[in-house]
Amino acid sequence: MEWVFDGGRPCLDLVNTVRERHEEGRELLTGPAALAEWLRLMGFAVAGTSVGELSAARALREAVDNVLLGEPRPPDVLLVNEMASDAPSPWLSYDDGKPVKELRPVSVVAALGALAADAIDLATEAIAVRICAADDCGLRFCDASPRRSRQWCSMARCGNRAKARAHYARTRKRD
User: Whose CA is closest to 13, among 85, 65, 78?
Assistant: First the structure.
């Protein structure tokens, strides 16, 4: 699977499980196994997922996208709030003697709740959510740059390609 985790927040990485939104969109959460794999890569300890949980994850994904980037409709806000109520409480652990807050959901419902809670946190913070400026991308990401002027989901992918195309166009004009 072509998972990318360039959103800067877990809820945006969920939104980014649909690619090429500027066209017809390409679904990456193609089945319960894909959702389980994605959740495991995100650090959620889930054993497996069902078709119903897959539908819930997709519905949450679209609601989060609308809440953070679009005109949030009351059903979107309601869904995010309802799912966030299932978020697990944080656990305290220590890493090299330093306290660390961990989320350890054991169910898909709890994992989706944590993603919904993250979306609420992001919606209420002073962090801009942007869409990658690359014509062929469309990934969502947090722009916490000092001037809120970040354009690319990732410099390693889209930013590098855009700069290479611009360089090629400039050098071609000189020839």
Answer: 65
Give the CA distances from residue 140 to residues 57, 59, 82, 174, in Å, rounded to whole numbers and listed in that order: 17, 17, 23, 35
Q: What does DSSP say about strands 98-102 and 140-143: parallel, antiparallel, or unpaired?
A: unpaired
Helix (H, G, I), strand (E, B) or coil at 131: strand
Model confidence, pTM: 0.83
The 10 Å Cβ neighbour count of residue 4 is 16
Report the SS3 class of residue 102: strand
Determine contact, residues 45/66, Cβ cutoff 8 Å: no
**pLDDT per residue as tens digits for the range 88-99:** 887 888 999 999
Instruction: For tokens 């000189």, name the residue.
Output: 174
Q: Is a pLDDT exceeding 90 seen at residue 172?
A: no
* Residue 34 predicted with pLDDT over 90: yes
Please list the alpha-helical segments (H only) found in 70-159.
Answer: 74-84, 108-123
Can you read off the two tokens belonging to residue 6?
Answer: 């360039």
**Do 16 and 7 touch, CB atoms closer than 8 A?**
yes
Q: Please, which residues have CB within 8 angstroms of residue 78's CB and are 6 or more apart in sequence?
A: none
